[in-house]
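From the methods appendix. Each design record in this collection lists the tokenized structure first, followed by the designed amino acid sequence. Records were kept in a plain field format so they could be parsed without special tools. The example shown here is representative of the layout used throughout.

RECORD:
FOLD TOKENS (386 positions):
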């Protein structure tokens, strides 16, 4: 019996020593999982709302959180898919994060490579990004109207349908859904994390178009298109159709949520007809986490350029092209503290600081998760542009 007690105490002490010597990111991960387990087991009271929608002290002085939140005017849905973290207990992780990144040699190499990449003419940079995401089309943009049908033949003479909500104005929005969503959802026919955002733009007398996206993984190498490239090519063709229909004096913006946001960001670089982009829960979700130089160990890209194509520098390029950029991110989506969330809000801080004097950039943080905050997004973008 005494031996068992001694073994238990020794194991506990060893576990404690190992835990204290873990990197901050690992300690924070263990804390968040333990906290979630205790709440699910009803062993502690849930502090769900406060944790999810409160910025930690590290960033509370950097941002003003929007007074508009979808939780106040739209359906109050569960955000249980977001890891519950004790924000106050993760301050050590947030404090140490910059130190960890600064001393990491691979991070420094990535930043140096990134600096060299951007120290070139923008007309040289964009083709490289296009190649990285798989948009190297062998057919030039074009379209053909199909009589009696709500769609177009694209440059490859492949038919695709679009949804259209008309209004008597010169304001036009292309509204892209996210993964596992659809035009019907963004238009308000189905309820999901899109929060029917396109319908709010329609109510403000924007002409709204939406089209379904290609499933990730599908590609056409002989046409120079990845799954992202296929969607980009269709959207570029649609933008040319919209320009002809609505006139040269129309303001054409493109918005997207989640995967749709990334597509919207990329299209803003490749489509001459696009005047502005609204990124909802998009690039602020990525930094170097997708790069082979990532400190997270979750690298997915084949080269550091894949990381660049996913981070907020894409929007820096859009601003350099004189495109209006509005970024909207829910606090819970931008701050999954202790795991990958730190990069989301750090990316936004960096962009805010770089473009603080720009007349082409604005952003909003709101109390919410991975979802749209359409009232704020419409108002914020219109103030930026008009």
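DESIGN:
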């Amino acid at each position: 019996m005494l031996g068992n007690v001694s073994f238990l105490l020794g194991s506990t002490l060893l576990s404690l020593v190992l835990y204290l010597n873990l990197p901050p990111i690992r300690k924070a991960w263990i804390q968040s999982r333990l906290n979630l387990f205790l709440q699910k087991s009803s062993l502690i009271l849930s502090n769900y709302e406060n944790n999810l929608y409160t910025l930690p002290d590290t960033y509370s002085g950097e941002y003003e959180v929007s007074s508009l939140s979808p939780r106040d005017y739209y359906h109050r849905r569960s955000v249980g898919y977001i890891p519950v973290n004790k924000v106050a207990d993760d301050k050590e992780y947030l404090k140490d994060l910059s130190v960890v990144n600064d001393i990491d040699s691979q991070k420094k190499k990535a930043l140096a490579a990134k600096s060299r990449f951007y120290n070139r003419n923008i007309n040289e940079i964009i083709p490289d990004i296009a190649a990285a995401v798989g948009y190297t089309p062998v057919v030039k943009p074009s379209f053909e109207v199909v009589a009696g049908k709500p769609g177009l033949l694209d440059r490859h003479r492949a038919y695709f349908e679009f949804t259209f909500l008309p209004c008597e104005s010169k304001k036009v929005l292309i509204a892209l859904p996210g993964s596992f969503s659809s035009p019907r959802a963004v238009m308000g026919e189905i309820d999901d994390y899109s929060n029917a955002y396109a319908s709010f733009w329609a109510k403000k007398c924007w002409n709204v178009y939406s089209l379904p996206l290609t499933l990730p993984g599908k590609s056409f190498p002989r046409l120079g298109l990845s799954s992202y490239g296929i969607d980009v090519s269709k959207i570029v063709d649609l933008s040319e159709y919209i320009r002809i229909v609505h006139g040269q004096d129309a303001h054409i913006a493109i918005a997207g949520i989640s995967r749709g946001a990334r597509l919207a960001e990329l299209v803003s670089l490749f489509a001459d007809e696009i005047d502005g982009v609204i990124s909802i829960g998009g690039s602020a979700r990525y930094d170097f986490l997708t790069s082979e130089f990532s400190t997270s160990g979750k690298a997915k890209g084949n080269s550091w350029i894949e990381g660049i194509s996913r981070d907020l520098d894409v929007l820096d390029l859009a601003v350099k092209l004189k495109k209006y950029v509005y970024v909207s991110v829910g606090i819970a989506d931008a701050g999954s503290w202790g795991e990958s969330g730190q990069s989301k809000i750090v990316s936004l801080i960096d962009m805010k600081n770089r473009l603080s004097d720009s007349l082409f950039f604005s952003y909003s943080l709101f109390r919410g998760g991975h979802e749209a905050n359409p009232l704020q997004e419409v108002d914020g973008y219109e103030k930026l542009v008009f």
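APPENDIX NOTE: The first helix runs from residue 2 to 20.
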